[in-house]
Every structure is written in C-alpha cells, then in structure tokens.
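re: that complex we talked abt at group meeting.

here r the seqs, copy pasted straight from the sheet so there may be weird spacing, ignore it
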Amino acid sequence: MAQQATGGPLHVSVITPEGSVFEGSAESVVIPAWDGEIGILQGHAPLMALLGEGQLRVRGHRETERFFVAGGFVQVIDNVVTVLSERTAVE
Amino acid sequence: MANSQEIKGRIRSIQNTRKITRTMEMVATSKLKRAQDRVQAARPYADRLEGVIRRLMTPEMAARYPLLRQPKEPRRAAVLLLTSNRGLAGAFNANLIREGRLLVERLRGGGIEVDLHIVGKKGINFFRFQQEQLATARTDLDERPSAEDAASLIDPLMEAFVGRELDAVYLVYAQFHSALSTPPTTQQILPVEPPSQEEREAASDVDYILEPSADQILDRILPLYVRNSLYRGMVETAAAEQGARRTAMKAATDNAGDILEDLTRTYNRARQAQITQEIAEIVGGAAALE
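got the structure back, here u go
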C-alpha cells in the first residue's frame, strides 16, 4: 500500500486511520496548514500544526507526490515529517 | 444395532456438514488474514495521535475541553455494543452480549439512564427480545468498517456529550489479541481519560512550534482521537469475529471427522454381521438338503 521512497533527507509518512498512504524520503514537503502553506526543508525546527484543506506536496529527487488532505495534523521533528489526516486522496 | 441403510444416511449427512464447516473455516481464515492486516494498519495512526495528545495535554487544561468533562453525577450514559451480523462463530456474540448486559445492569444499578447503541444483528435481536428500546441499531457495518462508519456512529454521541445530554460513552467490543484470544472488553470512550502524569513527563522534552496553539490543536485533535478509538474497536471486533468463526468451524470439522470415524466403524460391523449371517444361512440351507 505504501508508495516508494523518492530520495532526500526528510523522512515523510502520511497516515490515515486505515493505514499508511505514503512512506518515504523527500527533499522538501509543502503542507497545507490551517492558515496557509508551510514549506519544510531539512533541519526544520520541531513543529506541530493543524492542517486545512489543500494539496500536500512531497518533493523527492525526481518526482513530486501530490496528495489532497482535508483536516488533520502534522508533526515535524528531527527531519521526520508525520502527516495525520482522516481524509486524504492521491492526486 | 441400527440397520446399515440408516447408518449410511447419517454418514452422508455428516459428510455434507463437514464439507460446509470446512469451507467456512477456510473462508474465515482468509478473511481473518485481511482483517488482521487492517488491525495492524490502524496502529500507527492511533499511536501518533496518542503521542500528540500526551505531549500537549496538561492536567490544568483538562477542565477546559468539553470532551474531557468529568461529570460529578452522571445521569445518562450511552453504551455502544459491537456484535456481528452472522452467527456460527462460537461464543463470540454471546460473550459480547453478556459483557454489554452486565455493563448496562451496573450502570442502571448506579441510577444512570442508559441509551443502547448496537451494531450487528446478533446484539440487536438479543436486546429487542429483552424489550429494550434501542437508540441506534445498525446492521450495515460488517467485515470492512471504515473510518467514516466510525465517525457516523460516534459523532452524534460526541455532540450529545458536549451538549451535556450524555455524561459518558462506553464501548463494548472484542479485543483482538490473536485468533484464539478475543476477550470482550469495555472501554470508556467519553469522557476521554487524560494521560497519566508519568507518561507525560517522558514525552515532553522538545520545544515545539505550535500552530496555531496547543489549545486549538487539542480542540481539533481530541475528536479525531475519540473517532479513532471507536474505529479501532470496530476493526478489532471484525478481526475477532473471523478468528472466533475459524476456531468454531475448525472444532466442528474435527468433531464431524470423529463422528464419521465412529459411524463408519459401526456401519462396517453391521455389514459384516449381515454377510456372516447370510453365509451361515446358506451353509445351514445346504446342510439341510443333504
């Protein structure tokens, strides 16, 4: 079910109640937070934020994975990005 | 001794039954595998959510969240009982119903009014037969519960709890330890139990940037947590049902095998006795002619 790693220094997981939707590494991640998009690069400070509705972009070496998320939560710590959302869809 | 025709009939009937139970066992085994995977898949989300709440919640904050409200004198509680739509799973449903019934009795004994919310035909039939009024009776959730199913069940209860119409919500479900161990369990879903102090200290050593604020994050995360508690209960119960059915059907298949062995032996003995008797008659007849 989990998709392939795309390469990069960040470890990203996108998790729904039913299971993991994405698990892999990335160069950067753009998160649709409650009040606008947040970009995450390597070495980001620890962060917990609520998500709004929008596109979650996980940019790897070559390709970018795009997900739609509506509500949920993101946690960033030690280059590990965890996105929890009840509703996600791969775009 | 029964005549051989009768025994033959019974053998055939038991062979057919064994065919059915063996098929059901195999079906349950394959469904169990998939249900088990879903239990596994649900774990990371639940663990992370719990971690976040543990990290952000302080005991002083507890009083401010409607979902954590600890009523002094509970007057009305909801009991959410998960059972299955189908039987032939051994004592699976009976155990769940007993657990639910005891809980209801205990609550009523404490002077608390109880609303019954029941999932699964087996539980519904039992409580209807007891002349109980059911606040919810759902038969549409079965083998593959989704997070939305859980939300559709629990959201109205959360609203009622926040609106102070309900003072507690209990979930009765089958915990899934393994295919052989699926104990019926009561879990208090609302009010949410705040994590204990020692657990909290271990978790809180990093200084997070919080967007928008711990308060607001918790406000949005707690309902997710409540929904997820129910969702997990539902997937575990679904897996437990398949496990219980597999065990029950395996026992039935084995028993059928034992009975068949006995009957075959009896049948052969009867057949042999008949042959012996016929030979004796022929020999006797021949001797009489000489």
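couple things i noticed - Chain A has one domain: 10-90. The mean pLDDT of chain A is 88.
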